Amino acid sequence: MNIVILSNSYGEDRSGAIIGQEIKRLCLDATVFGAPLVSLGEEYKKRGIDVIFTSPPPPSGGFFLKTPEGFVKDLIKSSGVPLSYLAGLRKMRDEIDEVLVVGDIMLLLLGWFAFRKRLWFLAPCKSDYFSPHLRIEKRIMKKTAIEVFTHDEPTAENLRDFGVSARFLGNPMMDELEKENLYNSPQGKTLIGILPGSRREAYKNMKRIGIVIRMLRASYPELHFAVAVSETIDEKRLADSIGDIDAGIEFVKGAFVDVVSSSKLVISLSGTASEQVAGLGIPIVSFVGTGPQTTADRLRGQEKLLGSCLKLVKNFPNGVVEEIKNLLSNDRLREKRGGIGRGRMGPKGGARKIAERVSGVRRKA
């Protein structure tokens, strides 16, 4: 059995790669290929999955980011990428048994045009909580998808009402989030996690977060801050962007789960990582940042998706500081918001369940 997984951004690459890994465990005679649209396929490669297409990320950091400047730059630099992608996939048409698309409706259409067969579709980009699928999108899914795996159960119910075969099996982005004891917070300190983002805007975002840290430190000297640094970010440059600050802040690379799971709350200007934090049951405070990942529109959508687990604060920096103080002083409020986040994201194990559907194999008890 030959299976190819199409994906179109960092988070989708990771989810696709984890599902591919589960397929290989379930079906020993399966050959799995990764076909990332806008990356070099690192997530697939590190899990031993062969990559059949790569493309350096475009200037905006993601081909479908909807900002005027980013769109124009991407169009100039990456205009030929979808056509090359389509041509590469078509060459494999007769060799592939199953196709899983992890991404948006445009990628689903690219896959369908390439293989001319019905596909499996993991749709993490939309949810009835904040951005329901349009009628035209539902029609496309009904025509092209064997089955749609949704972000949550309300979305699956909505699609089923339209006649789309859809189900919620969990979010693969919640898999492989185990503590590794790579970071331990200082004893006697209250830890707040920091997520400035994984794209170039993180450096300017960190500068804004630094203002909040300084104000909090003036009132709470016992606070300690740990920045979970993405693999795509230069740690030294990120630290330099915050300017002079005391020893109450650490920059930690490669220990995301250890940092956030040890934190009372998290200040996040991130995308997928915020959803993972919510799924781990940790309340989030957010505010508008400096790039396309942290616009008011995107963060309002994230707030709707994650419920009150994520609070988007408009008044910067004073309102942000007051919101954090409120959470620090109220254990029940933190637990309530964290519980809402867990409910919105669902339990781990989604990758294995999706892998079972795609491969047609059930793991023996």
From TrEMBL:
<dbReference type="InterPro" id="IPR019994">
    <property type="entry name" value="Lipid-A-disac_synthase-rel_put"/>
</dbReference>
<dbReference type="Pfam" id="PF02684">
    <property type="entry name" value="LpxB"/>
</dbReference>
<dbReference type="GO" id="GO:0008915">
    <property type="term" value="F:lipid-A-disaccharide synthase activity"/>
</dbReference>
<dbReference type="InterPro" id="IPR003835">
    <property type="entry name" value="Glyco_trans_19"/>
</dbReference>
<feature type="compositionally biased region" description="Gly residues">
    <location>
        <begin position="340"/>
        <end position="349"/>
    </location>
</feature>
<dbReference type="GO" id="GO:0009245">
    <property type="term" value="P:lipid A biosynthetic process"/>
</dbReference>
<protein>
    <submittedName>
        <fullName>Uncharacterized protein</fullName>
    </submittedName>
</protein>
<feature type="region of interest" description="Disordered">
    <location>
        <begin position="338"/>
        <end position="365"/>
    </location>
</feature>
<dbReference type="GO" id="GO:0016020">
    <property type="term" value="C:membrane"/>
</dbReference>
